[in-house]
């Protein structure tokens, strides 16, 4: 059955263009800068470009925007590719690098100089900013704006040959210093950077700026729609100026959509890098971060991420999407697919005094009550079992239906037990609880008709395995990190409770063989994923309770 891809305003634009020209071959691209790891905001851009190409039977490219050698690294190049493939957005149109087009960008810069549409400027960055003007005042022309073509060609060649220091000169497009759009006030299109490039080495010491290089790359690859986030909307006239003045035909079109902003997290690569480089998190894949690799390590699936992006919608209006919607997406999926297992965060020993010391029997528990086809697994039962400390109260609150003095509960899938003697340590803490079992019940009801309201989970003491549970919460205490007061920083709102490490946990024996990345529902605890870095460690993907409103 063919997948139906929902429409949006971008598809409406394409549909209108196709009515005018049915021969358009849709071609999109995802152009990440390899200066950090992709995050969930990137997933929106990937999905829009990938699904647009797929819907119209077109092609989808991955193109690394590696035009800034100072910040780029092969580590990021590899991580971007791995994330894209994990998400299932295969670039069937090809994998390219912005640096593949450096020769062409230089060639076209020469053309612009010869056409009198570009000039070498000696103004410093500060001076250029001063000359640029404001939103209400026109800019001033550079004193170097009217250099001759010959002088500009000579200076640009010498820039390329490394004769001038960083920042001493730029090549600027000659457009209009009184333009209402500041981006059109003679923008710089080349700058001097004496830094080795991760692919080109030391071949170049001048590098094209994004607003100049990007339309050239699109045109050379045959991209028909350059779909990008809304902050580039004011850059669209410059995109079109480059295309028109170099003389490309057919012409790619730039169209913009709103970025994905999510509550209680941050999408700033600079700040994410700060957290990583200052060891405030466990690398780029720390499960508290919004990076794709962090979501993968935490236990999210590609489908849950893309379903979240689809639910958030594609529009031109900026909005803040509740992180609960993301959690709802993975919770719904895992509720249907994840096998159930038992984990006990804070174990207390329960001794069943009327059960034989040397006996082990097995009880079958369902792997997924919602899916009988998932079958069952056998859980060993012995005289000594662990229960969770939260399931016992020496002085119980009202309506406490778990274990309490003289009270009865069912051990899930096994016997009904009655609380007896409470053995304590010298410091007053509970060492163990003695109880008796109704050995006639065996997962059945008492023969005398008494009602047992509480059921608690358990594990056999000799068979239980040690484990560490990583309980993750929101990264920030503030909902909208874009609304932080000027006198505060991100650091002021980092959530000190974003990670709780439970190193005392016990898990059922089958989890000793769990593979890294496997996901489970830990009964009454939440959904967990076997960590990919640390042995015997499980990351909480999301809790059991869904606070996202149902439609």
Description:
It is a single chain. The protein is of the alpha/beta class. The chain is 25% helix and 24% strand. It is built from twelve helices and 27 strands. The strands form seven sheets. A seven-stranded mixed sheet has the order 12-25-26-27-23-24-13, with helices on one face. Helix 2 (40-55) crosses helix 11 and helix 11 (302-312) crosses helix 12 (323-337).
The description of the largest β-sheet is: 7 strands, mixed
Shape: elongated
The average pLDDT is 95
Nearest-angstrom radius of gyration? 31 Å
Number of E strands: 27
- Our estimate of the beta-strand percent is 15-25%
Structural class estimated from helices and strands: alpha/beta
Give me the oligomer status. single chain
Low-confidence stretches: none
- N/C terminus separation: 27 Å
Portion in helices: 25-40%
Strand order of the largest sheet: 12-25-26-27-23-24-13
**Can you count the helices?**
12
Summed up, what is this model?
With 551 residues, this protein is of the alpha/beta class. The chain contains twelve helices and 27 strands. It has helices at residues 9-20, 40-55, 74-87, 102-114, 125-132, 149-160, 210-221, 236-246, 269-277, 292-298, 302-312, 323-337, and strands at 27-30, 59-64, 94-97, 118-121, 170-173, 188-192, 206-208, 225-229, 253-257, 261-262, 320-321, 339-341, 343-344, 347-352, 361-366, 376-381, 384-388, 408-411, 416-424, 430-438, 455-456, 459-460, 465-472, 499-507, 519-522, 526-530, 537-542.
